[in-house]
């Protein structure tokens, strides 16, 4: 709701905005809106995007709403609308942390007053605080099942609440999970359940669990979870990093494709489910195979590379803890903001007095 900045500025109230995606993605939209960098267009669809402090982005790694032929132009307009009056924001709070995006933050700071305050991820609830969520969502079923599995053995698969897989993709995902031989917890929305292969749940009973919702923070924090097949939304990206869980990257649109690049190539905690660069989009048929699913699970759970990615994931988990702990980078950023706000107190009483007059 970018108009809030206009209202605040009109009343003389210092105002900030919260950016809930990565700083790298913020940079992409900022540079696009202000025409500060070249982006793929109809004449140059294969153009690589170069942004300060951000690794070169190939066309399929650029936020998809900025690409020619984007099928969701209204979303592009909505997102870019946030940059129309961004100059009125005294602060731009970004859900990231210094150690995670140091170069991007430094570069964008020269253009906009960004303040990294993340990761804004709620820690898994303590056992004493689980009752309400467990009763409401039956989360205890998932956690109880995980408790019975071996450490670092379970493949957790969830592609978010918006993405709907094609029937062919549901089949390939199901067969790939089954063929991996590993226990799995798969979140399948009720509307997609009828697309599961006939007899799949019965065949995998005891080995796998299919649910329509899961307490994701607790699943990722559980010692039985080995890897996370994710759509790479920024919230899920931060959740896997703060939990120290390697990922199978399966992005669909928007910022997810950029997040996936960082997870695999920069943070080095995952692998791509689909071939890179992706094959041309098709109206029918799956965008991946059961063999891709099985291959990715093996790469994340067996061998030296799997150990390296697990070590990297653990390192990012510790870095996130340090950032939000007392004296950490995000903690210092928040304290600096509060101090600045306190010094601006003289502005506030006049606003209150004017409103009450």
UniProtKB/TrEMBL annotation:
InterPro entries: UDP_glucos_trans. Keywords: Glycosyltransferase, Transferase. Gene3D superfamilies: Glycogen Phosphorylase B. Signal peptide: none annotated. The keyword DNA-binding does not apply. GO terms for molecular function: quercetin 3-O-glucosyltransferase activity; quercetin 7-O-glucosyltransferase activity. It comes from the Eukaryota. Belongs to the UDP-glycosyltransferase family. This is Limonoid UDP-glucosyltransferase. The lineage of its organism: Eukaryota, Viridiplantae, Streptophyta, Embryophyta, Tracheophyta. The gene is LGT_0.
